Amino acid sequence: MSNNSEEQITQNVLDTMAQAPNPRLKEVMTSLISHLHTFMREVELTQEEWAQGIQFLTRTGHMCDDKRQEFILLSDITGVTMLVDGINHRLPDRATESTIFGPFYREGAQELPMGATISKDGRGEPVVVMGRVLSTDGTPIPNALLDVWETDENGLYEQQDPEQPDMNLRGKFRSDREGRYCFVGIKPVSYSIPDDGPVGQLLRVLGRHPFRPAHIHLLISADGFVPVTTHLFVKGDAYLDSDAVFGTKDSLVVDFIRHDSAEEATRYHIPVPYYKVEYDFILKAR
Hints:
Helix content: 25-40%
Order of helices and strands: HHHHHEEEEEHEEEEEHEE
Strand content: 15-25%
Low-confidence stretches: none
Oligomer: single chain
């Protein structure tokens, strides 16, 4: 007779995977089931609570489509995304730190010339972002690709907002022979992650807010180097110490310095006032 008692059930499940042909899958699933069963014993989970958990995950799946990924939000607000990122990006001290990718990246942004703007609707306060892409030994990296995206001044990414032009505030830029890059965006604003679904409901019952500090997303890559997904955060933002998705890192917090010179602004074809950020991205060789 089979013994599926409370004491034996975990081992019975593990025994069924003894001949799993994929060693890594066997390792991951063995650990997952062992920890999950331990968790359920530790909190003495009730049948009602387990049913609520299943319903929560079902609602989370129903919120996912080609423009929204509720499971990524769930991963983000539980700190899982940042933990996976940390495990997989143990880089040298000089290399630019990574942070979360987020659910709002889109393929297909246009490659633009040095100094061009990614704003298609002209809203927001202009910001000039410039610097260099370097290797960890300080050597400039030419032809590095910077893939950039951010929200509009209303805190929404363009796929969330039917009022924005398609692919607004998205663009790709190349570094020059000396590793220099430059593009124009808008000064980012703090914004709420989507909180009208199960993830938002979870935050509320936990007494947590849904806000992220103001930031610009960047994905930097170059032949022969490890790519990095990162942010530039606005120094002084109210949510730097309570980012809903735990994505902030001190090394990525920068000054957005205001400029009022109309003469300087004409070089970038933008009005005054505008802001400027200077930041060097440092990549690790493969």
